[in-house]
Amino acid sequence: MNRIAESELIITKRDAIYHLDCKPEEIANTIITVGDPDRVSAVSKHFDKIEYKNQHREFVTHTGYIGKKRISCISTGIGTDNIDIVLNELDALVNIDFKTRTIKNKLTSLNIIRVGTSGSLQKDIPVDSFVTSTHGLGIDNLLNFYLQSNNEEEKQLVQSFVTQTQLHQQFAHPYISGASGALLKHFVKDFHQGITVTCPGFYGPQGRVLRLGLANPSLIDNLTRFTFGQHRISNFEMETAGIYGMGKLLGHHCLSLSAIVANRIDKQFSKDGNAVVEKLIQITLQTISDKL
After folding, report:
1. pLDDT, average across residues 71-98
2. Does residue 206 sit within a domain?
3. Would you place residue 195 in the very low, low, confident or very high pLDDT band (cuts 50, 70, 90)?
4. Which of 195, 192, 177 is nearest to 248 (CA)?
5. What is the rounded distance in angstroms from the CA atom of residue 283 to the CA atom of residue 32?
6. Residue range 83-101: average pLDDT?
7. What is the domain range of residue 174?
8. What percent of the chain shows pLDDT beyond 70?
9. Is 90 exceeded by the pLDDT of residue 171?
10. Is 45 within the bounds of a domain?
11. Is residue 8 in a domain?
């Protein structure tokens, strides 16, 4: 096995991975990711026991138990640039031997579930509802830096997406990855399903206009109208495609769950987004505890 250089895998003096500031024993094999660092405590307050609390920059990690189920909750911050850090470092924590700096012979697959907020792109997916992402479709460019492969349906879906939305030329070429079927099957009841588009920003990349004009003013309408067979775009946000794409390449099981706090078609925003997120957290933890 080739040794990974110090410049490529940064390990701190306390033998922790650099950005997350976690040691291998300080994370569980079932992980909830949240964007907001303050949301980690909103998850871990439901733990029966907390073993570890780590924090470095926007990356906050709490690891503990619900009953006999060990769970970690980690904040990623906003955007797929941070997802690149978090997914690579989580994988390193379980699949790289820090003493020898070599990849382990036996690899571990993590269960990684994103719990976040999102905007609906369909009239029939209202605010205060929940979405399970069947696919993450990225227009942010992250996965284009990695060697990747798609099945024939995924290739056709991306090509159809480019054709229908005209997101090409000056925009990043889209990429797509599917959810883990092993996780998805547990989050069907009371959840809408659809493709989640992951954007590289909150304003222009999601079609919002404040003082700047848009290069693609028809973005929202094109995303809402997009269809491919039985597939349609349900919502968009800023992390899902990165999690799905990185997770697939690294061999982990990933799922993204979204609390819908805005409907971009009806121009509505939730009157109590925190309550909706809290409900989603409780559903997620109960499902993990009972079924995973």
Report:
1. 98
2. yes
3. very high
4. 177
5. 12
6. 98
7. 24-291
8. 99
9. no
10. yes
11. no
Instruction: Find where tokens 């949240």 sit.
Output: 34
Q: In the structure encoding, which two tokens stand for residue 66, read together?
A: 């619900």
Three-class secondary structure assignment of 159-209: HHHHHHHCCCCCCCCCEEEECCHHHHCCCCCCCEEEEEEECCCCCHHHCCC
Identity at 281, one-letter amino acid code: I
Q: What is the CATH number of the domain that holds 141?
A: 3.40.50.1580
Question: What does the chain come to in residues?
Answer: 292
Which single residue is written with the structure tokens 């009972």?
290
Based on the structure, what is the number of domains in the chain?
Answer: 1
Backbone angles phi, psi at 129, to 5 degrees: -100, 180
Position 167 scores a pLDDT of 81
Where do the H-state alpha helices sit in 11-104? 39-44, 80-95
Task: Kindly state the tokens that stand for 235.
Answer: 């919502």
For residue 83, what are its two tokens? 């997802």
Residue 153 pLDDT class (50, 70, 90 cuts): very high
- Contact between residue 49 and residue 130 where contact means Cβ atoms under 8 Å apart: no
Rounded CA-CA distance 175/234 in Å is 17
Q: What's the whole-number mean pLDDT along residues 230-257?
A: 98
Please say whether the beta carbons of 254 and 86 come within 8 A. no
Sign of CA dihedral 133, 134, 140, 146: positive
- What is the reported pLDDT for 172? 87
Q: Are 255 and 132 in contact (CB under 8 A)?
A: yes
Composition of the chain by helix, strand, coil, percent to 5: 30, 30, 40
Kindly report which listed range (56-60, 91-95, 169-173) carries the lowest average pLDDT score: 169-173
In a domain, 18, yes or no: no
Tell me what the pLDDT averaged over the chain comes to: 96
Cβ–Cβ < 8 Å for 119, 263: yes
